[in-house]
Design goal:
The chain has about 90 residues and is an alpha+beta fold. Helices cover about 20% and strands about 30% of the residues. The chain has two helices and seven strands; from the N terminus they run E-H-E-H-E-E-E-E-E. Strand 5 and strand 6 form a beta hairpin. The model has no long low-confidence stretch (mean pLDDT about 95).
Length: about 90
Amino acid sequence: MELELRFFATFREAAGGKTVEAEFDDGSTVGDVLRDLEAEYEGMTGRLIVDGGLAPQINVLKNGREVLHLDGLDTTLADGDRLSVFPPVAGGS
């Protein structure tokens, strides 16, 4: 299946662009995709999954919905889904 992966801020720098089209096995989950991203992009290693769960303070959206409100890392993906990954945001003054 083909997914549209969208990256923001420092994750965009790590991926080398805002949007990446990528192929994954049918039935892949958000966790599967995030593990693959950590393996592929050095700047994401250890920043997406921590202690077997979603890293603190990052946001991952499936088609605009926060995966924590779905099935978290076990959220199943389908062909054509869009996964958006936002790093922690530091506040201003």
